[in-house]
Amino acid sequence: MVPGGMRATDLLAALRRTVEQLAAFNELAKALTSTLESREVLGLVMQKVSSLLRPANWSLLLHDETSDTLYFEIAVGMGADRLRNERIAVGEGIAGTAFRTLKPRLVDDVRSAPDFSPRFDAVTDFRTGSVLAVPLIFRGRALGVIELVNGEGDPRFSEEDLAAVMAIADFAAIAIQNARDFQRVQELTLVDEHTGLGNVRSLRRQLDAEVTRARSLGHPLSLLFLDLDHFKAVNDSHGHLVGSALLREVGGLLREELRPVDAAFRYGGDEFAVMLVEVDTRYAVQTGERILARFRSHRFGKGSGLDLRVTTSLGVAGCPEHASQSTELIEAADRAMYLVKARGRDGLAVAST
């Protein structure tokens, strides 16, 4: 026996467990600072939980603010597939209660828990066993829940297990929030705030990739460049709020006219670009004519009680027909658009070879 009544073997086991936990926390901290991808962050978190505690079943639930429900981002164990599309109301089951109260739950026997939900609190239909649920809390706000389930015959979760998961949850909450903040910044730097379309930075990034792919595979690629006709007069007559609303309408109009594989961008001001993937100039002209017809028939500003007619001038250029680099393709389509402006607007021109 050692002082305090603990046997040497028990002390050694406790020390070994402490060393394993410290090593896991250290590895987790290093790993989580090396990535800002949400899926990687969540995978790393649950990998450490699984290796430390070896639960029979485990899951990570995240909060959907729109519906105010919890969904299974990760679920591992028998019957996990049936949980992937499930939603839990805040406060439902042990996990939902942990989320709502911001307090961890350690249930030694689920039969004693009035809020136990066999549908959600067990990957298999356990009627006995223990459950451990820890909310992921960042600055007083719950982001989700880590839940572990052991069935009858499996080891019961202990207070030490709870402390270990709570420590991991602290790391996880910070890492998840950092990943989300990074994603929002990325979206802001690639999306135009007025139209919801990609911005010029997004255009250059995607166009570079598609030009490289088109050249390597020998597939066509086309670009439309649009400039709204007399847009300044709309701002001067009706104000910039109406002008901004009109730009949003243009963004929606372009999205409706494109295939899912194509992409529209706000280049700047009242200029827009449309990237047509694996489309030659002939088909691009057809798409351009359809867009022109849509502009001619559409009346803008109805949300403001107006009935505005706005047309556009459109230039078409193709790769490799008119350019072999993304910058050259933009310039070729832009020059074609200015030919339309010189001819009187509301029309289409194809770049010269």
Task: Walk me through this protein's architecture.
This protein has two domains: 181 residues, Beta-Lactamase (2-Layer Sandwich), CATH 3.30.450; 151 residues, Alpha-Beta Plaits (2-Layer Sandwich), CATH 3.30.70. 46% of the residues lie in helices and 22% in strands. The chain is built from nine helices and eleven strands. A hairpin with a 2-residue loop joins strand 5 and strand 6. Helix 1 runs antiparallel to helix 2 and helix 2 runs antiparallel to helix 4. The radius of gyration is 29 Å and the shape is elongated.
Task: Briefly characterize the structure.
By secondary structure, the protein is an alpha+beta fold. Helices cover 46% and strands 22% of the residues. Strand 5 and strand 6 (141-151) form a beta hairpin.
